[in-house]
Amino acid sequence: MDYQYSCSECGAAFDFSPQLMLCPKCQIFQKDNEPLRGILEVIYNDGNKAQTPDALWPVDAQILQSVPSARSPLWKSEKLEKATGFKNLWLKDDTRNLTGSYKDRASILVATIAKKWNIKEIVLASTGNAASSMAGIGAFWDMNVTIFLPETAPRAKMVQSLQYAARVINVAGNYDLAFELSLQYSEKYQVLSRNTAYNPLTIEGKKSGAFEIFYQLGKVPDYCFVPTGDGVILSGLYKGFYDLYKYGFTNNIPIMIAVQPDGSAAIYYALQNGFFTPIAAQTVADSISVDVPRGGYYALKMLQKYGGKSVTVSDEAILNAQKELSGTTGLFAEPAAAAAYAGFLKMKANIPQDADIVLLITGSGLKDIDSAMHKVDFPKKSIRSLDDLE
Amino acid sequence: MDYQYSCSECGAAFDFSPQLMLCPKCQIFQKDNEPLRGILEVIYNDGNKAQTPDALWPVDAQILQSVPSARSPLWKSEKLEKATGFKNLWLKDDTRNLTGSYKDRASILVATIAKKWNIKEIVLASTGNAASSMAGIGAFWDMNVTIFLPETAPRAKMVQSLQYAARVINVAGNYDLAFELSLQYSEKYQVLSRNTAYNPLTIEGKKSGAFEIFYQLGKVPDYCFVPTGDGVILSGLYKGFYDLYKYGFTNNIPIMIAVQPDGSAAIYYALQNGFFTPIAAQTVADSISVDVPRGGYYALKMLQKYGGKSVTVSDEAILNAQKELSGTTGLFAEPAAAAAYAGFLKMKANIPQDADIVLLITGSGLKDIDSAMHKVDFPKKSIRSLDDLE
Fold it and tell me: Chain A neighbours among B 287-326 (CB < 8 Å)?
């Protein structure tokens, strides 16, 4: 399929090159503490000829799917149906991806393009899942991966990256510093950046979730609840549904609901106010904890254009949702992923009970055992005989 | 399909009942510190009429598969092929099961039978994966699960069980005491036991791995490397391959290789000596650490009958194999699962390079981050600028 880049702000068109990241014109207006300016979209010049959605990729879909079991299950649970009263409440279970998170979708596309262009190394800044995802996909595809990781990243995700033999560089600072150093590194050593939102392929890769849901349901759903931090998973899903719409595979775009923690709600506030204000994030849901949502402008534009909504949930509600989801489905989600269910619970009074609803379950609970401990009651004593049972 | 139980020791036949666990005749000879006597097999009276292997279940195969994505991927990696020189080295990736381990296969069948017989509660003793697996499958199928867990069980697996809303009872003692108390509990409260090896359905459930490999490869492989503790996964795979053979779907049974840690090698020694000697187990691979292998007699009989082998590997070799597997495939396995690869590396000089070889990857590395830390090098310092990179 023939494709190019188009700026999501000014609409300027660019030929694809793996080094091109943001629109050079809009990038001039970039300020500190703001989402990225000039995020690029992939446009298919001959997309109308696509016989199936799988044609709408900048690489051969077969190559994408050569990563083991790239397609995650979509399923529902009777017990969850009883608990909520909703018949068609679907779980898009990305805990089953190779590295246990939705981020594999972006990593796979970036790695594929790197391979196609004979680039041997990928660099990124990450607080956790993107790092371990890129490391794992890099291990599968024989690609060197260098990660700039803030010191505060969760231990499990760091160990996972190291197990995958990535080069992990600890940064004495936050994600912003890690991001900046990773850009300097990619320029100095001429390697490919997989920084989320910054590399347009991260958005394009994440659209695979939308295509899969469409294949699995046989149509697009009515609602999607998406755990939202930097806005890139949300944007990727929008891009996927929009491609399906634009190229004639469906007449609808789902109502997307960006679920954010109370303590990391930049996109929520921007949707209310029309502009972004930097706020220091604090939430148990580390994967969606961001001061400045890098993909914010694009996500906001999509939400505004297609009537999307946003909802905030407390950490307490997230942890309760995590426990309830585990106990009613057997699906153990990390806090960020459970936020999708928390958001649904907050909104459900306004949703028809027969609607097709998809909750994006974006990461495995095994990645963050410490958070999962908050809402469980440990046995208070150890027993030696059944008589010791109260 | 019409089926009954048959004693694997004396051959006596019994009608199926969910309460029947071991052969009452052979059970009389049970001694302390020995594997279980009188393990029962499921025999299909009309198995020869089966059109597909899926007919060879004591329940409708459709019900088994209603658990989300019950079939795990079988895949290989180019990078692993380069590292080993073996073209057809397959990974049966059971880290992708609902709860992240092979144990789901037994839990699913036991839960299905409980549902069929209208039993509301399942009890088991476990050191970890069987517990979290039964808890997760129980959560999916609305079944109460009670777990007797030795105090020393790994924390991640305990938290996982509690997240799934299982009742976890800590036992001030080892697996033997937990096992004993769980039996007393199942009798006192008339609930179904899922104790591994003890409930014949645990073996029958674990045969699904063999069926899947057969479907996925289009034939049975030449070799299977199986992480082995109590011998029940090994026995389950044998039962599956044997059913395929017995009922005419294949003419071969693979050469099975039971891989055991140096520090927990009861089945290995029994294969050399012909008898079992209890030895206190000690290994980093907690999922296959057992003093007395409950399913030992049956596993030993199968190994002897079908020319199986056993190999031991050091903890050092296991942890190196874990790291090498992560770095060459993107598959992050827990130590017990990585033992399959360690065993393969030890044996590979005697295996033809074009043989079809399956490594059973039985559990996710995210379940035991502490062990995964042994072989990774943490960054020694944090940097503030690229100049700080050496």
Answer: 322-323, 326
pLDDT band at A70 (very low <50, low <70, confident <90, very high): low
How many Å apart are CA A56 and CA A84, to the nearest integer?
36
Angle B142-B148-B149 from CA coordinates, rounded to 5° = 115
Q: Are A351 and A223 in contact (CB under 8 A)?
A: yes
ipTM attached to this prediction: 0.96
**Alpha-carbon distances, residue B79 vs A110, A169, B58, B71, B330 (angstroms):** 18, 24, 40, 24, 10
By Cβ distance, the residue of B160, B177, B332 closest to A163 is B332
* Chain A CB contacts of B137 below 8 Å: 330
CA distance B348 to B342: 10
User: pLDDT tens digit string along A292-334?
Assistant: 999 999 999 999 999 999 999 999 999 999 999 999 999 999 9
| A159: nearest CB among B75, B77, B369 | B369
**pLDDT digit string, tens, across residues A336-366:** 999 999 999 999 999 999 999 999 999 999 9
Structural domains for chain B: 74-99+203-372 (3.40.50.1100)
What letter does residue A72 receive in the DSSP assignment? P
B315, two tokens: 């903890």
Q: What angle do CA A38, A42, A45 make, to 5 degrees?
A: 130
Please report, to the nearest 10 degrees, the dihedral formed by the alpha carbons of residues B16, B20, B23, B24 taken in order. Answer: -120
**Strands across the sheet containing B40-44:** B13-14, B3-7, B40-44
Report the candidate in A53, A101, A83 with the shortest Cα–Cα distance to residue A219.
A53
List the Cα angle A40/A45/A51 in 5-degree steps: 115
Which helix (H) or strand (E) segment holds residue A193: the answer is: strand A192-193
Backbone angles phi, psi at A122, to 5 degrees: -125, 140
The Cβ of residue A212 has, within 10 Å, a number of other Cβ atoms equal to 20
For chain B, say whether A112 makes contact (Cβ under 8 Å). no
Q: Strands (DSSP E) along chain B, which ranges?
A: 3-7, 13-14, 40-44, 74-75, 89-93, 121-125, 144-150, 167-171, 192-193, 223-227, 255-261, 309-313, 357-361, 382-383
Q: What's the alpha-carbon Rg for chain A, to the nearest Å?
A: 20
Secondary structure class of A78 (helix, strand, coil) = helix
Nearest to A92 by CA among A108, A107, A71, A78: A71
